[in-house]
Amino acid sequence: MIIVFVLVALLVLSAFGALHWYAWRRLVRDTTRGPGLARRVGTVVFVVGPVLMFAGFAAERAHAPFWLQQTLTWPGFMWLALSLYLLLALLAGELVRPLVSRLVARRAPAPAPEPDQESVVREPEPQPVPAGAQPAEATDTGQPATPAAPAATDPPAPPASTTAAPADPSRRLFVSRLVGGAVAAAAVGTVGYGTYGVVRGPKLKRVTVPLAKLPRAAHGFRIAVVSDIHLSPMLGRGFAQKVVDTINSTQPDLIAVVGDLVDGDVADLGPAAAPLAGLKARHGSYFVTGNHEYISGAEQWVEEVRRLGLTPLENARRELPYLDLAGVNDIAGEDEGQGPDFAKALGDRDTSRAVVLMAHQPVQIHDAVDHGVDLQLSGHTHGGQMWPMTYVAQAANPTLAGLERYGDTQLYVSRGAGAWGPPVRVGAPSDITLVQLASKQA
User: Average pLDDT, stretch 204-230?
Assistant: First the structure.
């Protein structure tokens, strides 16, 4: 097993190195005139970027000192996002490069034609006059002939310079710089806009979900759903406050925090999570674990969110006015003997009442269907977070984002409020969702 892991790791590292070499070649080597400052700086960037990326992941997983995590993760994780979009833009650049080359060739001025040697009319060279002979202009008037003026001679040509004039950048260099500049601008612009979309805070989304068992009196019951906040060395207290302010602005009846709250220890991220104590809802705030809680230490975070005023639902159910609210642990807890237990959370309940289930991963929907759940609230997918990873996330989950029906059970999947790894989202905007329940009897 260890040998297989090592071989896979070497294969991944080789592919990663080859892609970086290709990007360096196109963006640095092909756009510079030999060894110089520009090439040296570009080479340093393409070496230091991957090193910081691996160092950032290692520091976070090893629970290194928090200041070191912050120092390494920002540049390292941002390089991950930037290298992805540099590669995609370079692949697009390869498709348009031949067209750009042809256009540049058409617009380039044609070289001046060399004169045709056979068509040049040469002036007759003056012939020397023999000594004692009369010049041709002399006449028989008896007057002495005027001496011919000495023939004018052209000044001697200056010696040819031995130093050639510096040549303009070649057409190939010009095309490489043009395409490389467009590639870099596209990648930096994409990552910059994606980062802004995360750090400004999630946007509010509203969804209406009709439930057959919901009584008329509960029509319009509002649940604020937030998942995947991912507080980390990169997204801290200020980001948590934006999430809390957005949720409270909806004046919800109930708040559901559906896992992946943090990426780190309570000792490091406890201050970042402190604003969660300000969550306000008439029927309380509830929390279930996600897979990242089990990486960070699920037990300590369950106790921390309880201290902040949230109610953890660890394979448990609460009877609320008009409906039941249940929660199950994440699948990742199975390795620690704390996996999901649907029978414990949903057994012995009144099946005539509507039940809403909080479960971090959408793949838990099949167990929810078997246990007669009316609505499951999930996250985990991030909506793919960064295109084209959306296709990978879509293949791994029954629902990528939004509302879908599975038999008599409905599943709503939030794209999440934060981001894992690089704080960048492309094609998958972050959200906090206000789910408004609708009674079919209303």
Answer: 95
> What is the CB neighbour count within 10 angstroms for residue 209?
18
Non-local (6+) Cβ contacts of 209 within 8 A are: 375, 403, 410, 412, 435, 436, 437, 438
Phi-psi region of 87 (alpha: psi -120 to 50; beta: other; left: phi over 0): alpha
CA–CA separation, 332 and 61 (whole Å)? 16
Pairing of strands 402-406, 409-413: antiparallel
Query: Tens of pLDDT along 23-72?
Result: 999 999 988 888 889 999 999 999 999 999 999 999 988 889 999 999 99
pLDDT of residue 138: 43
